[in-house]
């Protein structure tokens, strides 16, 4: 029987992005919650009208849940979180904390880390976003020095979003100055659900090499 949840990713990507393509966030969430899902592919090289109809920017992932199609990894994560209390508590306070920290991963960390990383690729001697990036990591470090997980006193979908943003190699390298952040990422990626999601994504792209 076909699963109601379908995660769409690329059919292939170069070796560099493997393990970090953002469908891993959705895979991880489904593995944590025990939500049945299947993975389907769109072409990496030829992004056609059917792809654009579901993801206007020609990116991945997008998620199909019955007659619902939703794009952007953060939106997909919050959609999945509404399907399982494992991913987000149902009490108003716990839910609010989960939502705010999920959005913080996108808006307060990834919004800075992605351009910071991209500028760094240019080899410029002074990254104009360096101070901003270090300030954001410092503030997050202060939070995680006091708690194991971000929201509701337990692991939630917010930790999937945040730890995935932090485990990007260049960002993770920067966390050497922030031991609470490095420990946080280590805790997150040690979880069996992450290991399964990561292995499956790597196998998906490796299979396409042949």
Name a few traits of the molecule:
single chain; 210 residues; Glutaredoxin; Glutathione S-transferase Yfyf (Class Pi), Chain A, domain 2; 2 domains; 9 helices; 55% helix
Précis, in short:
The protein is α+β, with helices and mostly antiparallel strands. It contains 9 helices and 4 strands.
* Domain tally: 2
CATH H-tier superfamily of the largest domain: Glutaredoxin
Note the overall shape: globular
CATH class of the largest domain: Alpha Beta
Q: CATH fold name of the largest domain, please?
A: Glutaredoxin
Instruction: Give me the count of strands.
Output: 4
> What is the averaged pLDDT score?
96
Q: Strand share of the residues?
A: 5-15%
End-to-end distance = 28 Å
Describe this protein's structure.
The chain is built from nine helices and four strands. It has 210 residues and is α+β, with helices and mostly antiparallel strands. It has a four-stranded mixed sheet, covered by helices on one side. The longest helix has 29 residues. The chain is globular and about 40 Å long.
List the helices and strands and how they pair.
Layout: E1 5-10, H1 23-33, E2 37-42, H2 49-54, E3 62-65, E4 68-71, H3 73-81, H4 92-120, H5 130-144, H6 157-166, H7 169-174, H8 179-189, H9 192-209
Parallel strand pairs: 1-2
Antiparallel strand pairs: 1-3, 3-4
């Amino acid at each position: 029987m076909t699963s109601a949840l379908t995660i769409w990713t690329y059919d292939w990507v170069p070796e560099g992005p493997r393990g970090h393509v953002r469908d891993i966030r959705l895979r991880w969430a489904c593995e944590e919650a025990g939500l049945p899902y299947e993975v389907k592919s769109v072409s990496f090289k030829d992004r056609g009208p059917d792809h654009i109809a579901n993801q206007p920017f020609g990116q991945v992932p997008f998620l199909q849940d019955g007659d619902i199609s939703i794009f952007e990894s953060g939106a997909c994560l919050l959609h999945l979180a509404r399907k399982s209390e494992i991913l987000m508590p149902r009490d108003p306070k716990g839910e609010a904390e989960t939502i705010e920290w999920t959005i913080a991963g996108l808006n307060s960390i990834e919004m800075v880390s992605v351009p910071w990383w991209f500028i760094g690729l240019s080899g410029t001697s002074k990254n104009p976003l360096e101070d901003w990036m270090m300030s954001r990591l410092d503030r997050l470090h202060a939070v995680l020095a006091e708690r194991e997980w971000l929201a509701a006193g337990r692991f939630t979908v917010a930790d999937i979003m945040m730890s995935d943003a932090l485990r990007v190699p260049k960002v993770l390298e920067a966390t050497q100055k922030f031991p609470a952040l490095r420990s946080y990422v280590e805790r997150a990626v040690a979880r069996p659900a992450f290991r399964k999601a990561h292995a499956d994504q790597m196998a998906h792209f490796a299979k396409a090499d042949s």
